[in-house]
């Protein structure tokens, strides 16, 4: 049987590959009452298939909202709005569109930060954290924390990934370096720090000074990020 879709507007129709943000689905006023039933949005790509719940903007019921999940690669995926018919426990496809996942500067910055743990000099100078695909100095800092933390949570870190790249603090020696926690402290990245503190090596990184003898919590406090400084105090 051929599926017949109703007219509905999806916004936006693209996202960074790490997802985040909200998809809005606006209904055709003449065709569907969003107050009835439960709704889901299916994102179907070549490697991943996500099913997320969609919620109506009650009491108006003119729009549905769904979280945009991440995807493995940049590609066009099918997005389908589905209604659950509870009486018969069946699913009815209502509307469909193409949705584009794209690589952006935050994606490439995240890849750099993940790999920076293997290079003790990678984070020494903020002004030099750039490539032909990203430039930290051009990032909008007011939204960077949310974007980076979302991208990191969607990154498949290897089992042996460690905040110090595998180097452990011992009683005798550990090379002073700028860690990712120092990076967070300089920019006030509380959400990113919260993610990193749950990764291997976080407790070692908390008590590791950079070449200027500064701990991450010290830098956060000096920059006025007092809540973050408390978080990084261990």
Automatic annotation (TrEMBL):
Single GO cellular component term: plasma membrane
Any GO BP: regulation of Rho protein signal transduction
Name of the protein in its database record: Uncharacterized protein
Protein source organism: Biomphalaria glabrata (Bloodfluke planorb)
Source organism phylogeny: Eukaryota, Metazoa, Spiralia, Lophotrochozoa, Mollusca
